[in-house]
Amino acid sequence: MSTATIAFIGAGNMASSIIGGLLSSGHPARDIRAADPFPESLERLGAMGPVGLFDDNAAAVSGADVVVLAVKPQVMAEAADSIAAEVATGNAVVVSIAAGITIETLEQRLGTGTAIVRCMPNTPALLGCGASALYANGNTTDEQRAHAESLLNAVGLSRWVPQESALDAITALSGSGPAYFFLFMEAMADAGRELGLDADTATAMTLQTALGAARMATEGDVDLVELRRRVTSPGGTTERAVQQFESDDLRGRVAAAMHAAFERSMEMARDMG
Question: Which contiguous run of DSSP H or E holds residue 219?
Fold first, then answer.
């Protein structure tokens, strides 16, 4: 696969993270462009490497193989309209990382013949630890899918989903998921203080425990059930705590919360469409 020329519309945190990941993986800076109305955003990108910097969206997109729409949903219509003519005369795949903006909505702005990939990254992508899902419309070639996948792989793990509606489930799982873990860690640290630990110790031990557990889960060769079983000695403290969680229907509460996020994601897509 040849090296793609990639143009970013929007130079915010997520775009900066993806560009940083691309540069770290060896993608030539000369083949990366970014357009943004805010000079300070472009200056930040310029400090990362000699990427092409533009204050005009259409100029940035001209001749690009991949166009990444990295703008907030509320300005997506304006951004899409600004590049529609260039996209129509080229052969670029348009990758949208905006939440709630459907492919149908983008096709209305960019044309029904446009190759479009919609993806849902999450905030840990800012640290190169993202979990992202992608869905492509029928106009997207295998090479264009590979280009889109390489973007998200630059900031973590990516997976294709078989239908666009699955992105709502991804939103409920990995898109909103970091907040679930933050909330659980908050609760653990609070409980540690209630048990007599000082705030710094309770927080530090909570964070390190979460990090260690995550590494065991991602780097080990056994599944989550077996990992939990190995920590849960019969008659011990962990077993007592896990029994309390199960008695309080932790799984049901997690499922209910994720269903609520899923439904809200569908509502937002309808509102923005």
Answer: helix 199-219
Q: Specify the long-range contacts of residues 243-248, CB closer than 8 Å, at least 24 apart.
A: none
Q: How many CB atoms lie within 10 A of CB 251?
A: 10
Contact (CB, 8 A) for 119 and 133: yes
d(CA 171, CA 267): 12
CB 27 within 8 Å of CB 153 = no
Specify the amino acid at residue 225. Answer: V
For the chain, where do the domains classified as CATH 1.10.3730.10 start and end? 175-269
Cα separation of the two ends of the chain: 34
Q: Residue 1: which pLDDT band, with cuts at 50, 70 and 90?
A: low
Token readout for 147 is 């280009």
160's tokens: 């294709």
The topology (CATH level 3) of 6-161 is Rossmann fold (3.40.50)
User: What does the mean pLDDT of the chain come to?
Assistant: 95
Concatenated DSSP letters for 121-139? --GGGGGT-EEEEEEE-TT
Tell me the pLDDT tens digit for each residue of 36-66. 999 999 999 999 999 999 999 999 999 999 9
Q: What is the C-alpha separation between 100 and 151, in angstroms, rounded? A: 20
Compute the C-alpha angle 184/201/254, nearest 5°: 5
Q: Does domain 175-269 have CATH number 1.10.3730.10?
A: yes
Give the predicted TM-score (pTM) of the model. Answer: 0.89
Please tell me the distance from the alpha carbon of residue 181 to that of residue 178, in angstroms, as a whole number: 5
Euclidean distance between CA atoms 206 and 200, whole angstroms = 10
In angstroms, rounded to a whole number, what is the distance separating the alpha carbons of residues 183 and 104?
35
Tokens of 85: 């003519």
